Amino acid sequence: MKINYLTKDVMTDKSDFLILPLLKKSWKKNGLLVALDEKLDGLLLKALRADSFDAGKYLGSYAFQTWGKLPFERILLVGLGDKKLGADMLWDLAYFVSKQLRLDAVKKATMLCDFEAFGVDSAKALQQMVLGLRMGDYRFEQYLSRNKRSDKLSQFTFFGDEKLSGNAAKKAILDGQALADGIDFTRDLVNTTAEQMTPAKLASEASKMAKEMGLQIKVESEAAIKKRKMGLYLAVARASAEPPKLITVTYNPPRSAKVLKPLVLVGKGVTYDSGGLSLKPTAGMATMKCDMAGSAAVLGAMKAIGALKPKRQVIAIVAACENMPGGKSYKVGDVFTAANGLSVEVLNTDAEGRLTLADALVYANSFKPAKIVDVATLTGACVVALGEYTAAAMGNDEKFVGEALDAAKEAGEDFWQMPLNPKLKKLLKSDIADMKNVGSRWGGAIIAGLFLEEFVDETPWVHMDIAGPAFLESEAPGHLPKGATGFGVATLVELAKK
Ligand code: BES
Ligand code: ZN
Ligand code: ZN
User: pTM of the prediction?
Assistant: First the structure.
């Protein structure tokens, strides 16, 4: 999608749709609305009155045919309400607009933005709107033989004033596009079926992306993983016909930048979670191709980071494997040893994500990082606690958890902190090993977090449980679509930029 920013008179443009976002407090006095109304012989305001359009309703909208009286076939008025607009709301606004355009198969649209009146930073607002447009225009049609749509929005022009310079606007659009490319990549990886998105395929997609973006990549197979003594990860992987792949992607900042300790991103990469011998019921398995959404999010973030070139080194780690039942399965009651020497009694093979992540976190520590973030579709309990649209954040360092939550807010993603209550640690005590991999039914998301904490040493670390928002069975209000959402990418990129 080609996205432009112009400061000319919007009437000099010509497109299928003109979109006009309006604030409750000032919409009736909006200069352009009045000018449009004049050109339409007063019919627009008359119609709005008759149909009681109210800009006080956030994302309430009104479409109007111009019958050749204007260079735009239609006008779409969108209410912005009267609350302070945040990064998430601008993302939502553009997502909403792009869906409206999609309904009418619009190819070329124009939007007039008075960013200053919106009370938001113009460049930031523009970047968030690029995300919304791109996200709404995404299609996943790999498995369709018919009814494919050719109605992609090909051109979108924002009109603003000189207060946002052409160069700043250009950068905001490029940044937004880079982030959207990362999110699209994540969504493609997650939407692809587990039959195709095997650990090897995930590794080859990561390699392709790394080459394209100028990142370093290392893919290790079973022998190397054994050498690393990643006993928990290997236990999960061992029943599958698809061999595990340990993926490490590195972004090195421009040489002129000061050398800083790296930020390490760890993503859960279970390309299919059947539950193993603790087999899931059919309904629980149906969406388990999404169990690599954490790894897809860190890889999507790396794609964006490769384009945005922040000052800090960023390393992404994915311990990719399948969790399958079979003659070689790890068994309920078995004990395995992690790369840091801790032994773990497996009392549920469906709590596999924490096992793969534990070894990946030990590996992450070997980079002597400034900070570690892991992202995982880790527990159903997290979805019970927070609902489908909110991810959990928890960690061993209150300051860093705060930074992660701030980054999420800046990025426009919905996170909520959960307490890593040390009193619950006793639930992970095992009779025969250092720990067991499950605790009680209560506080399941926190217990998973407490388990991971044993593998991160002193490094400030945040665990993000994205089991809810990573993959949705139906579209959410706001900007999260059905299927893979790309959740987490924007927050990770924001953190990397800090
Ligand atoms: N991959 C699942 C968690 C999940 C559930 C992700 C729903 C997305 C949507 C994870 O591996 C799992 O099965 N967790 C178990 C843990 C339990 C056995 C302690 C769960 O949440 O039931
Ligand atoms: Zn599981
Ligand atoms: Zn899982």
Answer: 0.97
